Amino acid sequence: MRNGGRPRDPRAESPGSALYASCKDAPPAERALSGRGHRLSALVLSVALLLLVLPGCHRGDRIVVGSKNFTESDLLGEIVAQQIERRTALPVERRFHLGGTFVCHQAITSGQIDLYVEYTGTAYTAVLQHAPVADRDSVYRTVARDYTQRFGLVWGTPFGFNNTFAITVRHRDATRYGLKRISDLARLAPRWKAGFGYEFLERADGFRGLASVYGLRFASPPTAMDLGLTYRALAEGKVDVIAGNSTDGQIQALDLVVLEDDRQYFPPYEAAPVIRQAALTRHSGVAGALAQLAGRISDAEMRRLNALVDVEHRDIATIARDWLRATLP
Amino acid sequence: MSLWDFYARNSQEVLGLVGQHLYLVAISTGAAIAIGVPLGVLLTRRPAWRGPVLGVANVFQTVPSLALFGFLIPLPFIGGIGATTAIVALVLYALLPIVRNSYEGVAGVDPAVREAGRGMGMTDWQLLTLVELPLGFGVILAGVRVATVVSVGTATIAAAIGAGGLGVYIFRGVAVVDDTLILAGALPAALMALAADGLLGVAERRFAWRVR
After folding, report:
1. Is B172 in Cβ contact with A201 (below 8 Å)?
2. pLDDT digits (tens, 9 = 90+) for B35-69
3. Angle, vertex CA A80, rays to CA A74 and CA A81, nearest 5
4. Whole-model pTM?
5. Using one digit for the tens of pLDDT, what is the confidence trace for A149-166?
6. Chain A to chain B, count of Cβ pairs less than 8 Å apart?
7. Helices B179-211, B167-175: crossing angle, 10 deg rounding
């Protein structure tokens, strides 16, 4: 092995070579492998090259749509995917239910997906790390500008709804204590238990800011848990207040009440498609297809669609198809 | 912020979470052994139960943790939010390797040896404690080893139900797009899994050597 080894069929040298032939813009670094007989390093290199080349190579004639790991993101991803299928001849590949903002952002900046639906407030605070502000237009403008400059990503026009954090309590408690606004919560907080998702506890526009703006002091620090489980915990009386998402179908289904953000603490979270500049340039019809979805989904409409999935357990693809047929015949 | 800066600045918190993580793994693995080993041995006495029991243990493996937590929240005593629920879930996940290996370990004892024991007039209990368990111990320990290593990794999901542990950093990091935070949780968990695997591996070899 060390002294060069046996002569080998050069075609069998590396599994990467065949792929290079089919990929126009691949670098000619392949040759470096065949000189010495270090079979192991050649193998390692070819695997590495394969990994580098594969994502860039098999693209071009299709578009990959991603989504985050919750119902609304899956639903919007499916609507966008079907809309592209309806309006262009492009095959669409779905990579849904990816593990949250982090994974989607990594996937789209590295070119694993071409498109996913993001929220302006999330991009503004969690990805770009700006301090939260309440003005809807300035958030959208900043996000659109920074995404183009920093990541080569384009923001489409928002769908029309705002999925903000929803400080949520049981309907029974809201009636008993006359709770309508988040400010009403301050006097009850010292006797109540809160359960929040990690995102809400961690984000700049999350719990810490909320607590100081509204003067909320809970008896014990809020329990940190998975967002989906917080609804369950609230409905079962294990906690008394949670931060859900205002368009969640669970809110009505579990007889919960959303308190009004009377001091306008939360920034806007308008959903809009984020797409790779390169994909937009390559596939001219996509921009037009996405533009038709602009402003088409209100808060109430989104809540209704989410409830169809979460409460009535209907199939996402069917819901998306029916909705598109009814809205954009 | 680099990982080391993070650890230097939050050393108290890191140690606390490592402690919680160890607690979750120790209690759940301990409980899984207490339930799983007798259950596995019982299956060698009641072969007809083997299919159903291992089937149920198998099913627990396939239930996603969040779904399992969802089912557990409304239950009294073993449910709710916090460490108890997390431990119940971890026990259910750890059962399969322990039950299976306990069964295999005891059932795999050479029938000739067992016959010899009976020939010497051993009772069933003596046969179990003096012959079958000592001979099957290596295999049982291997099951415990797998269960422990897997538990160290699985215990990160305890953070989804307010039970703390190193998963807290992973969940927080994933929520806010922060690689450092994710690594801050994942790295000690990985080291802990390697350490557990190494220690139990040494114990396993020691024991195998002594039996021979």
Report:
1. yes
2. 999 999 999 999 999 999 999 999 998 998 888 88
3. 85
4. 0.69
5. 999 999 999 999 999 999
6. 72
7. 150
